[in-house]
Specification:
401 residues, Beta Polymerase, domain 2, 2 domains, two-stranded antiparallel sheet, NTP_transf_5, Renal dipeptidase
Length: 401
Amino acid sequence: MSHMVDTDFRLDVSQFPKELKVLLMLITSGQNGEECTAIPQDWLEELDWDLFLQLTLHHRVYPDLYRKLQDKKEMGVPAFVLEALRKQYQINAFQMLHLSAEMEQLSKSFAAQMIRSLVLKGPVLAADLYGDLSLRTSRDLDIMVPMDDLERVEELLCKLNYVKIEYPLTVLNDWKWRHHHITFYHAEKRTTVEVHWRLGPGPAKEPSFNELWERKRISTITSSPVHYLGREDLFSFLATHGARHGWSRLRWLVDIDRMLRQDLDTAILFKQLQTNGILQIGTQALTLAAQLLQTPLTEELGLLTKGNRGRRLAQGAIFYIRQMINLHTDPVPEDVSKYHKRHLFALMSNWNKVLFVLSFMYPYPEDVETLPLPKYAQFLYFPLRPFLWAWRRTKKQTAPT
């Protein structure tokens, strides 16, 4: 049994521009079988269509929106908006077909080398959640492999003409838990592949590759098997990924909406969220989806959204959604960066907060730059770390601006 969002709590979206509110109305139109609330005529007359188009492209919701706007002639959408959306829709459709072929190719190559792989997002997600490759955007492929196979994966990708474009600085193997993926690029195919050994950055608890593999599903969009995450694992992954990026793109929330309209096993999901210390993140996702996208929640999931912590976190994400924030483009404005650090800390379970604070005691690559030591003596960075950190702070403060 599903019920709509409860009425005793409302997210404060008073700072949303009219264009964003219209975008949300269009995203939710036809979702629950009924047409969306009629958009007030005076809003449409005053709408800044340039901003509306910018928002649609920023939030990566243009494939579905393009289809919907074609049927809404009465809205008086300017021709330049429809034309821009049509162009992006076509580019994306080709991109998804291209990624789909590459995904199948890589899965095949991995399997031939007896390397298990799980595709985390991309075409499998589009097919599973939208029933159509062209209805979800994807820039690259995210593939997870067991950590023990990373070297073999790298060799294999090099043979396939991929080039590693990321070399994280590391000390005492901290990359294994501080980072969670490495990026490869194929110049001819213009394809980027992120190879994951964790679902997200550490230090944080998450299921092992073997656990994820046991619960995997097989995608039906390719002729040879492509494996991807089980339903509840996928929800946990999408919720933590969206939360880590402040839900700054509505597409991630639309994914959650689509998932919640499938048959999720609430008991399994609840147990997984609790075990991995991300119940508050799951609750944030549920609250945002129910309130912004009118996602129907089952009674059990509805009860989860009653807690204050999930509500506070959901309200915290409104900061990103209302401003078209892009966390991927450096430099991130200082006020956004400070806010984001606080938001990421607020998302953590108490145990993860303890781990996070303790992780500062573990040496950082900067310590190596400050005081280079030979490999055999690098264990000394542990006792030296507070002094090296203090030294860097002093230098930073005395540096001429």
